[in-house]
Specification:
With about 70 residues, the protein is of the alpha+beta class. It has one domain (about 5-60). Helices cover about 30% and strands about 25% of the residues. Strands 1-2 form a two-stranded antiparallel ribbon.
Length: about 70
């Protein structure tokens, strides 16, 4: 389901008026890892999952000018 269809579905389901809304769409572990790597995090490792939450361990390089 595309994002606009998901938005309409959720809005209809909750009888919400038209407007701006934020909703989270969970990512698969592989997709979350790819997003973190694309954001320049290095050595992204999946650590654990607890119910609906996943823990990743990583490091983002800091500027040497800080």
């Amino acid at each position: 389901m595309g994002l606009s269809k998901k938005y309409e579905s959720l809005r209809s389901e909750h009888d919400a008026p038209d407007g701006f809304y934020h909703f989270d769409l969970p990512l698969s572990i592989d997709n979350q890892q790819a997003v973190l790597e694309e954001a320049v995090f290095s050595t992204v490792r999946y650590h654990a999952r607890y119910e609906n939450s996943s823990i990743f361990v990583s490091r983002k390089p800091t500027s040497k000018w800080r």
